[in-house]
Q: What sequence folds into this?
């Protein structure tokens, strides 16, 4: 049965975990080392996640096919929800992952639509990036029934786990998206860009907190673990630091 969290997981898998390149002429060769374009990737991931995509085949017919199968077409208000399909009917489509991030197939290693080598030659042909407005003509949001067993679809919890933080143990700030390892913020413009993306995606300000003493050791020990090893302990630690 259809599952939004599975859609998010599959988009993240194809855009981060394997080498999947971009090519419009070989767009259905979706495999590690293969190729896709923006719409074939989204359609493929929808099918992997149990969604009926009907006759959807490219950006131009996705809206009609999906809105006949449990999806609704919503205006682009700058505040997508995790699992929303971000659609420009003529040119591009991506999936919003939550936490200010989207996943997409962009272009080949030569910034062209086709002709490049198979696989992701640059690390960016398929990618996860901060949310931006393409511009999107609409958000497609699923309102049908789902199989929610063993999944966490609390998008509010996912969003609030993105933070910028500092400590008396190191200079500057770091950013943590609630999933991956924290990264250093090397320039004020980077913090500004992340904050703007978070605000555009959620309508909220990016939390900025300061850890004192041993708290930073505990936090970074937990935040530095792989995705597979994270659990509610890390969420509780952050909520404690935020006073929630």
A:
């Amino acid at each position: 049965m259809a599952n939004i969290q599975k859609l998010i997981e599959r988009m993240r898998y194809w855009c981060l975990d394997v080498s999947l390149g971009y090519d419009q002429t070989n767009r259905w060769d979706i495999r590690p080392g293969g190729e896709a374009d923006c719409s074939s990737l989204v359609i493929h991931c929808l099918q992997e996640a149990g969604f009926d995509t009907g006759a959807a085949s490219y950006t131009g017919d996705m809206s009609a096919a999906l809105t006949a199968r449990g999806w609704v077409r919503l205006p682009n208000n700058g505040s997508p929800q995790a699992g929303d399909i971000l659609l420009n009917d003529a040119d591009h489509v991506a999936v919003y992952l939550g936490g200010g991030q989207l996943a997409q197939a962009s272009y080949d290693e030569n910034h062209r639509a086709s002709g490049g080598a198979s696989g992701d030659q640059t690390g960016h042909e398929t990618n996860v990036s901060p949310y931006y407005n393409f511009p999107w003509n609409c958000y497609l949001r699923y309102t049908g029934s789902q199989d929610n067993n063993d999944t966490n679809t609390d998008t509010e919890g996912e969003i609030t786990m993105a933070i910028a933080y500092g400590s008396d143990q190191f200079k500057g700030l770091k950013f943590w998206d609630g999933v991956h390892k924290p990264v250093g913020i090397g320039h004020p413009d980077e913090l500004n860009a992340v904050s703007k993306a978070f605000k555009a995606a959620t309508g909220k300000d990016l939390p900025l907190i300061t850890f004192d003493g041993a708290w930073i050791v505990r936090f970074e020990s937990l935040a530095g673990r792989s995705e597979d090893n994270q659990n509610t302990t890390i969420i509780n630690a952050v909520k404690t630091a935020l006073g929630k």
Observations:
- Residues 163-242 form one domain.
- The two ends are 35 Å apart (CA to CA).
- The longest helix spans residues 188-202.
